[in-house]
């Protein structure tokens, strides 16, 4: 199968030299957004990028969408180099971002999508038929003649999705497309993505998301990215297999005096603490080498004068994989 | 949809469609908000009326009222260039459109061209209303000496003016947060310099030699020569107030149009390259 996307030693550094654009008062700071990223996405694949804010996901998408140049290394999309040959790439791609506010409030939903379709040169008749089909699929048909400024957040994001898919891209970049949406709007978008990739075997989706469940549910393969580096890349099942030998324990206690005290317990690989202000409790998720440290953890809780309210040993999820690799959760 | 239905191999077809697509919101916008028609037609007449009354009170020839009406008509285009053309890419960046534009396969000039022509069409409503109402209310007598030349000068003036707006669009983007300030800074001096409400030759008559240099300097704003030439062709009785012969002004305007459009293209290419290198311009709030 052909590569839809391929990156080699892809590096992007921001700042570090005199910037010619405003704002001039912004501090000059060198930030390595992508650090020698090697990845390959096959044609027909739904590929996920998981990472915390600032991990480099959006930077990677912007380079692949020909909006940014790499500092070093290379990237190809649909076989074309992003730096040397952006035009044929632009004909074959599109992008939808979460929380996008693009378009003009004065136009109707249909007009707005039609306008963007014209930037890809789609014949008006073809574009209008496709817009109508997609609006129906996204259950936005009733709002086709509503001005964009009157759309709700969910409706607006559905409109953005139609805008992205109306050009029938070979490769689409979805940058947190369900960000901030209610359950039903997010579900509609996920269903559409799944259906689209199933119906179009040669199409490729690169999806970034904050939602582990979304990545787990949708993606053929997932890359976990942090600090500009890809830490792991595999199918969700294999990624979960990485922590199978480890034990994940979720513990809820009365509020702990020193939640960081578990650092010193032997066998604790990693753990995440959440303070629940409303219930005055502490939630802890531990990644352990085996069952052995559980006793020491319980002792530490009791030593701090706290009580264990509940304890659960759970099967690995992508979240544990993420915590195990990155050392922190996504929240 | 078939992939081949969507992909356009002919760049001319692609860019023509992109041009129409970008012009559409502006053309539609002019008629979609009825309140705009009121604000864009009746309110500008108030400042025009003030200047007409001043000339009348001073006992100036009636054709001076015509100078003012014509200036008030062209003000609409200048305001559109300043606030909706020059500042537009900056606003597009703020609302997140710019990165979608930059990612599309169309030519950037199709985008700017669509914005410009859409703006011209939108503004024509206000301009036409100011002209018609002004002529009717103040009973201005227009004597069209050479309709073809008049139409030519009007069109070339608009092309040069919107070419300047296209160039400014990139310059504003470069200076980001100062977009409002630049527009404010330019608005009033250009009202004065371009002679919207008086013949630009007044600079020379009142200030002598330095005045002539001021008039030459402000001739870089296409509106200056365009207005002067159109006034010559509509009010031939006041030819003595002409700055340069109308045909010479047309040639200069043609040069300005070519130079501004060429510079706009270069500036936008420069901005895009910089944006890709530095990652600033397609990012909101940076």
Provide an overview of this structure.
The complex is a heterodimer of chains A (331) and B (286). Helix content of chain A is 31%, strand content 29%. The relative contact order of chain A is 0.13. With 331 residues, chain A is an alpha/beta fold. In chain A, helix 3 (109-118) crosses helix 4 (124-137) and helix 3 (109-118) runs parallel beside helix 5 (153-165). In chain A, helix 6 (183-199) links the parallel strand 7 (171-175) and strand 8 (204-209). Chain A folds into 2 domains: 3-240, P-loop containing nucleotide triphosphate hydrolases (Rossmann fold), CATH 3.40.50.300; 245-315, Alpha-Beta Plaits. Chain A has helices at 57-64, 86-92, 109-118, 124-137, 153-165, 183-199, 212-218, 236-242, 294-303, 318-326, and strands at 3-14, 31-42, 46-50, 72-77, 80-81, 93-97, 171-175, 204-209, 221-226, 229-234, 247-254, 268-276, 281-288, 308-314. In chain A, the strands form 3 sheets. Chain A has a 6-stranded mixed sheet, with helices on both faces. Chain A is built from 10 helices and 14 strands. Chain B is mainly α and 286 residues long. Chain B has one domain. Chain B is built from 13 helices and no strands. Chain B has helices at 3-6, 11-32, 34-58, 63-86, 88-95, 97-103, 108-137, 147-174, 179-193, 202-207, 209-218, 222-234, 246-278. In chain B, helix 4 runs antiparallel to helix 12 (222-234). Chain B starts with a helix and ends in an 8-residue tail after the last helix. Chains A and B meet through helix 2, strand 6, helix 3 and helix 4 of A and helix 1, helix 2, helix 6 and helix 13 of B.
Describe the protein's topology.
The complex is a heterodimer of chains A (331) and B (286).
Chain A: E1 3-14, E2 31-42, E3 46-50, H1 57-64, E4 72-77, E5 80-81, H2 86-92, E6 93-97, H3 109-118, H4 124-137, H5 153-165, E7 171-175, H6 183-199, E8 204-209, H7 212-218, E9 221-226, E10 229-234, H8 236-242, E11 247-254, E12 268-276, E13 281-288, H9 294-303, E14 308-314, H10 318-326
Parallel strand pairs in A: 3-8, 3-9, 6-7, 7-8
Antiparallel strand pairs in A: 1-2, 1-4, 4-5, 9-10, 11-13, 11-14, 12-13
Helix pairs in contact in A: 3-4, 3-5
Chain B: H1 3-6, H2 11-32, H3 34-58, H4 63-86, H5 88-95, H6 97-103, H7 108-137, H8 147-174, H9 179-193, H10 202-207, H11 209-218, H12 222-234, H13 246-278
Helix pairs in contact in B: 2-7, 3-4, 3-7, 4-7, 4-8, 4-9, 4-12, 5-8, 7-8, 8-12, 8-13, 12-13
